[in-house]
Known about the structure:
Layout: E1 5-6, E2 31-38, E3 42-50, H1 61-65, E4 68-70, E5 73-77, E6 82-86, H2 88-101, H3 109-122, E7 134-143, E8 156-165, E9 176-181, H4 198-213, E10 218-222, E11 230-233, E12 236-242, E13 245-249, H5 259-270, E14 275-278, H6 282-290, E15 294-301, E16 305-314, E17 317-320, H7 328-341, E18 352-357
Helix pairs in contact: 2-3
Amino acid sequence: MLDIKITRTTAPKAKPADESKLGFGKKFSDHMFLMDYDRQNGWHDPRVVPYANFTLDPACVVFHYAQEIFEGLKAYRTADNKIQLFRPECNGARMQDSCDRLCMPKIPVEDFVQACKTLVEVDKDWVPHTDGASLYLRPFIIATDVGLGVHASPTYTFCIIAAPSGAYYAEGINPVRIYVEDEYIRAAPGLTGFAKCGGNYAASIKAGEMAEELGYAQVLWLDGVERKYVEEVGSMNIFFKIDGKVYTAACVGTVLPGVTRRSCIELCKDWGYEVVEGKLAIADIMKASKEGKLEEVFGTGTAAVISPVKELKWENEVAHISDGKIGPLTQKLYDTMTGIQWGKIADTKGWIVPVCNG
Ligand SMILES: *Cc1c(COP(=O)(O)O)cnc(C)c1O
């Protein structure tokens, strides 16, 4: 148990008046969680303080060598005004795996969950009331040691900020067009693909921008060795329903193990689908499409929950999926996941962690 000191703001900000205009990650709540690390004291001084700027030496390791990791999860307000989290222990465990890869000191999963809950409780009035809107939590750790020699920092700051965010599909679920990237790669065996680190994103922006210029919502990354097998999409994992079976890339070091991915796999299995986690060649997906067997394609991630895909563009080939509409399995996963998260469906899986009354 952390002994978290709470200092409340004396100058609370005005809450967003129109929750339909929140967008994603643009406005932040009144407080943030902080905790520091040094070798002598370990993780220490856990506290909730008013949201404020950091003061950091320009020579901090994080600015030069990107020793940084992050997480992303949401707090939901239910219809009967309870506030809850979805599988936060999965995020805590994944953050430990990221810590390990980036040579950072781990935070116990219970402490991670307690920190999230405490910040949400202090800022509970910032959890939006609109259906589909939520309070997005962004936990992250930065290396704060001063010095330009390449080294693992001996000091760190763990911070959680909270952003009231609008319904992802404010105008209804919109299937997206995806560009299969055949030049740039996101990950390769031995690199950091499985870790949620800012550096992965820095390296991916260029391909994303090019796809956007061509009118695609995101890129689908192929494996970094042969550029043959599908891995994931932008900030989402990706699933393919082909001839009745559900396929997604295995999490073998180059794919980010999404909490939404894992939850969707469990649900699909509960519903009797065969789920194959393995290598799936883009050529075989395009072939399945030509044969009329590519039934549904969807991305999974905390922000969008489920994002249906209506088109895949790979080299000179284009696959059109589900007549541009959301497929039945995609819809059922979306309804079930959001139903559990917003408390409209009973949580028989033990995925919900209550925080407080709203
Ligand atoms: C965070 C993330 C995901 C999705 O993970 P969730 O836990 O489902 O939000 C997928 N891919 C990448 C690259 C990510 O950073």
